[in-house]
From TrEMBL:
Location of the protein in the cell: Endomembrane system
Gene source species: Aquirhabdus parva
UniProt cross-references to Pfam families, sorted A to Z: NMT1_2 (PF13379)
Name this protein carries in UniProt: Nitrate ABC transporter substrate-binding protein
Higher taxonomy: Bacteria, Pseudomonadati, Pseudomonadota, Gammaproteobacteria, Moraxellales
The UniProt record lists the keyword Cell inner membrane: yes
Length: 432
């Protein structure tokens, strides 16, 4: 059995703001709270929101306190900062943050209602909705949280064996060598990026390697003790493996699919149906935080905040590099990546494109996780809350695209545009 570190999983919630506080006093309160929460001086560069804009009347949130789960990853930053900057209170809600230990835990708590919503893997929401790996439960995607910013890491010991890329890996496996790769949840984004990359290099992820599931914060420790030879996970854990001298980045996920969908703000359908105003307020708060994060002058200070034990629990310097687009693959290559983790990108990150959700279902079908083709478009229309998102976006002046579909070319040259999902799922030479 692999060794696993102990992680803090306590809930984090901001101190309650007095309801009768004047706007000027509220700003002072937010400043004091943020300074207290951040490490030495980091919050001094944070720009706080202007006066609160509380919803009233029929638009008032049905649920004033919203419990949001997150996993310790750099891309939890927008839900954390929506709370830390007081953007939740601006729209009449209070975000109660809950640090979770695994994606399976997030899944179970969303289904049970213990969590109202979560920073969560796109593919997990679709799988739960379709009864893949869990009891079928109607689910919703409120908005996209981020694009890009994940990576596939391999152990340094493979470099001496000539395994530095996909071609080397295929040759190594063809020689009869056995390797173990880890992803964070079988239907999630990291599993799909890992599977896609392996298959694009002629390696069947279901047959040619051992494919296991490990929670994100445990990836590095598993590689340290030799349980895994490679893994796909979000930052900062790829950078941390390099920092500790145990692994190198063989490919970033933005090299697999530039501006790919990644984490979403997800919840059960029941939550949206019962609390539409709360859901809309939550989208608005996270949209504003997303804008804030894509102003790069704010990112170093945010890295210091989310580095704390209550959040990512990783050195701020480890987070900051790739957060700012400064990449070092740990094997002699350094570059400035214009396609690093994005949280806003003029709203392109956040719009819940139907084609994005459909893509994950095509991969679930490809790898035998979903046994039959489904009504891909119909399911995506049920899950992705486009109308609610558009209402929220209009309130915070976020542009929306003209079409709910988008077209992308992935690293193997295949184009995905959502037009024929069943044919696309069946078109791959390597599949389950």
């Amino acid at each position: 059995m692999h060794k696993t570190p102990t992680h803090d999983t306590h809930n984090e919630s901001d101190a309650a703001e007095p309801s009768n506080m004047a706007h000027s006093s509220r700003r002072d309160f937010l400043k004091k709270s943020l300074f207290a929460a951040s490490a030495a001086g980091a919050a001094s560069s944070l720009i706080l929101p202007s006066s609160a804009v509380h919803a009233a009347g029929s638009d008032a949130p049905e649920k004033p306190v919203v419990k949001i789960g997150f996993i310790p990853l750099t891309d939890c930053a927008s839900v954390v900062m929506a709370s830390k900057l007081g953007l939740d209170k601006k729209y009449g809600i209070t975000i109660e943050l809950s640090k979770e230990a695994s994606w399976a835990g997030v899944r179970d708590k969303l289904i049970s209602g213990e969590l109202d919503a979560a920073h969560v893997l796109y593919g997990l929401i679709y799988a739960v909705n379709n009864g893949v790996g869990a009891t079928a439960t109607p689910m919703s995607v409120l908005m996209g949280i981020n694009n890009n910013g994940q990576a596939i890491t391999m152990a340094n010991k493979l470099i001496s064996a000539g395994v530095v890329n996909g071609a080397g890996l295929k040759k190594y496996i063809a020689s009869g060598k056995s390797l173990t790769f880890a992803q964070t949840y079988p239907t999630g984004t990291h599993a799909m990026w890992l599977n896609y990359w392996l298959a694009a290099n002629g390696v069947n992820p279901m047959k040619d390697v051992k494919n296991i599931t490990v929670p994100p914060p445990q990836m590095v420790s598993n590689m340290q003790v030799g349980t895994t030879d490679g893994f796909c996970v979000g930052e900062p854990w790829g950078a941390r493996a390099i920092e500790l001298g145990i692994g190198f980045t063989t490919i970033t996920t933005q090299e697999i699919w530039t501006n790919h969908p990644e984490k979403v703000l997800g919840c059960s359908r029941a939550f949206v149906e019962k609390n539409p105003n709360t859901a809309r307020a939550l989208i608005m708060a996270v949209l504003e935080a997303s804008k804030y994060l894509d102003d790069y002058k704010n990112r170093a200070a945010v890295a210091t905040i989310i580095s704390q034990k209550s959040y990512v629990n990783c050195p701020a310097d480890t987070i900051t590099g790739r957060f700012l687009g400064n990449y070092d693959n740990g094997a002699g290559r350094q570059w400035k990546d214009a396609n690093n983790m994005k949280f806003y990108n003029d709203g392109k990150v956040n719009f819940p494109y139907l084609s994005d959700g459909m893509w994950f279902m095509t991969q679930h079908k490809r790898w035998g996780l979903m046994k039959n083709d489904v009504d891909y478009l119909g399911i995506a229309k049920q899950i992705n809350q486009i109308d609610l998102y558009k209402q929220a976006a209009s309130q915070v002046k976020v542009p929306v695209p003209s079409s709910p579909m988008r077209s992308s070319k992935l690293l193997d040259g295949k184009v995905w545009d959502g037009s024929n999902p069943a044919a696309y799922a069946a078109s791959f030479a390597i599949k389950a």
